[in-house]
From TrEMBL:
Main location: membrane
One example GO MF annotation: transmembrane transporter activity
Alphabetical list of Pfam families matching this protein: Na_sulph_symp
Name of the protein this chain belongs to: Anion permease
NCBIfam families found in the cross-reference section: dass (TIGR00785)
Keyword Plastid: no
Membrane topology, as annotated: Multi-pass membrane protein
Source organism of this protein record: Aliarcobacter cryaerophilus
Source organism, top-level taxon: Bacteria
Classification via InterPro entries: CitT-rel (IPR030676), SLC13A/DASS (IPR001898)
Family: Belongs to the SLC13A/DASS transporter (TC 2.A.47) family. DIT1 subfamily.
Length: 469
């Protein structure tokens, strides 16, 4: 039997076993069977024998056909509910922003400009790579597209100028650039709600919880930016100290970037328009709540302008497989998370788990939840699978032990850890395999650096507990 078939068989067998085991006391048969299918979906997302979106789609389809959410009408209405979720449409719209950056060449131009003006030293190159990611982060929810698709093609050419190759002097400059790039994108992924797709998915999931926790873009920024900005500024320097390049100066890099900019030609009208629309989106995400404009409303309206203005064509939208794949995938996961609540599983967990934390100091309990959630990422090759598997449990525990006014800041800190936790392994986030695959950093070194930076990156989150909760 092939490895793929074994990976497919494992979640199926697990789901079947749970399906036919009698439900525990306090849970209905429907809730227990729902849990069996939900767990099978999570294991499937971890093993990924078939596309992740198909796993989620098959899961909601099976639950609907078995009528676990009520009669046939109620079940199909629930199964498709994720596709009307505003958070899912925000993710989809943000993917169109990313496509606009790429098609106009604006993303590449920003990266080259950073190298041209900041790249005279190797440390400066590190900051150029980091700031290129920062500029794009609020508008690109896929750090794979941002770091792997936009920055990687520019940054990976820099070491080659100095004959720093994976098999020839990788520490000269290539290893430093690679680590700064992946470490920076992990930090920026925590900075902004819209900088990482699982951030937005998680916000959608907590909104479906019985506590109806709503996380606005600006509230996320108020907590995460003060914690992440110092970390972002320190990251290239920390890498320079902990994993230093052997070459300290890079006078050729700005010259190369200037030549590449000449090839791009002058800034086009569409680049200016794309930049203006991105800034408008950011302003409305920050202040839109004050004037009654929802973040998703902002996003879909600007996507309409992007297409009507010709930055993207309608065919560009229809052909963006990554955007539609994430749309279907996340819509099914939001529905499954909502199903946990509707079927009574969240209430069951709250009743049976919260007592464990009853005698623990509240601050210790909060920190313990965040640390366990963070470390658990070692077992996940997908941040989305991590969110889907663990977030409902951790939020349920938090809601049961925290005063109402502390639930929102705790939720933001917990979700804010999703970006930075991507640094800990070579498979911790989407762009990790891309930068690891460049070959400049050995697997052993990646694991050791990941553990060290993972510890450092957790510190601001813990500090946030004492500041905001």
């Amino acid at each position: 039997m092939s490895s793929k078939n074994i990976k497919l068989l494992v979640p199926v067998l697990l789901g079947l076993i749970i399906y036919f085991i009698p439900a525990p006391e306090g849970l209905s048969t429907e809730a227990w069977r729902f849990f069996g299918i939900f767990l099978a979906v999570i294991i499937g997302l971890i093993l990924e024998p078939i596309p992740a979106a198909l796993i989620g789609f098959a899961g909601i389809s099976l639950i609907a056909v078995l009528g676990l959410m009520g009669n046939s009408g109620e079940s199909i209405k629930w199964a498709l509910s994720g596709f009307s979720n505003t958070t899912i449409w925000l993710i989809f719209a943000a993917f169109m922003f990313a496509a606009g950056y790429k098609k106009t060449g604006l993303g590449k131009r920003i990266s080259l400009l950073m190298v041209k003006y900041m790249g005279k030293s190797t440390l400066g190159l590190g900051y150029a790579v980091a700031f290129s990611d920062l500029v794009l982060a609020p508008f690109m929810p896929s750090n794979t597209a941002r770091s792997g698709g936009t920055i990687y093609p520019v940054a990976i050419n820099i070491p080659q100028i100095f004959n720093s190759l994976p098999d020839h002097e990788p520490r000269k400059i290539g290893a430093y650039i690679s680590w700064v790039a992946i470490a920076s994108t992990c930090v920026t992924s925590s900075m902004f709600l819209t900088a990482l797709a699982p951030n937005v998915l998680a916000v959608g999931m907590v909104a479906q919880h019985d506590a109806h926790i709503i996380v606005p873009w600006i509230e996320w920024a108020k907590i995460m930016l003060p914690l992440m900005i110092p970390l972002f500024i320190l990251t290239p320097w920390l890498t320079y100290v902990i994993y230093p390049p052997t070459q300290k100066k890079s006078p050729e890099a700005p010259v190369w970037a200037a030549e590449e900019l000449k090839k791009l030609g002058g800034v086009t009208f569409k680049e200016y328009l794309m930049l203006g629309l991105a800034i408008l989106a950011l302003v409305l995400w920050i202040f839109g709540k004050e004037i009654g404009i929802n973040a998703t409303t902002t996003a879909i309206c600007i996507v309409s302008v992007i297409i009507l203005s010709g930055i993207l064509t309608w065919d560009d939208l229809l052909s963006d497989k990554a955007a539609f794949n994430v749309f279907i995938w996340f819509a099914t996961l939001v529905a499954l998370a909502d199903g946990l609540r509707k079927i009574g599983l969240i209430k069951y967990l709250e009743t049976n788990i919260s007592s464990v934390f009853g005698d623990i100091n509240l601050t210790v309990a909060i920190i313990s939840l965040i640390v366990v959630f963070y470390i658990a990422h070692y077992f996940f090759a997908s941040t989305t699978a991590h969110v889907s598997a663990l977030l409902p449990v951790f939020i349920t525990i938090a809601v049961s032990i925290l005063p109402a006014e502390q639930i929102l800041p705790f939720t933001i800190l917990l979700l804010g850890s999703l970006g930075v936790m991507g640094i800990i392994t070579p498979y911790g986030c989407g762009p990790s395999p891309i930068w690891y695959g460049a070959g400049y950093i050995s697997q052993a070194k990646w694991w050791s650096l990941g553990a060290l930076f993972g510890f450092i990156y957790l510190i601001p989150i813990i500090i946030g507990v004492f500041i905001f909760i």
